[in-house]
Amino acid sequence: MNNKTFLNAPELHIVIVAFSLHFVWELIQTPLYECFRDMHYYTVVLLIIRASLGDVLISLAAFWSASVAVRSRFWILDKGKKGLWVFLGMGMLITVVFEELATGPLNLWEYTNAMPILPILGTGLAPVAQWIILPLLQLWFVRRQLLGGSISGY
């Protein structure tokens, strides 16, 4: 794979944009999780980095699921919505299942009283909102990058 091919790979842009967006979101939502209350600043930053890398993996899994569904790694450039819905749906499914496991049987973290809980899912509103808002922003940025900074024609 040459440099130009590597730089045009949608996965590269997914990773960079996903990490950037999710890092900021994860940092902002720390008051909604009990585990961050009495932690040292550097420990919090390391956990935020780890969470953001997990978000990148979810983004890649959702991206590849959409790529398989539409049979193209460049579905972000298409006007069809199938890739978008698969991407959003897979990201949301992984997030809800992981949040349920993490706050339930795995006991990895718990929400503070400030976290609104969705009644049907039992999941916090922040992680669900994260996987509605950020993937849409992510796709917009990635599409723009793949088109060379232009968003005309869409």
UniProtKB/TrEMBL annotation:
Keywords: Membrane, Transmembrane, Transmembrane helix. The chain crosses the membrane at residues 12-28, 40-64, 84-102, 114-137. It comes from the Bacteria. The keyword Transmembrane helix applies. This is Uncharacterized protein. It comes from Stutzerimonas xanthomarina.
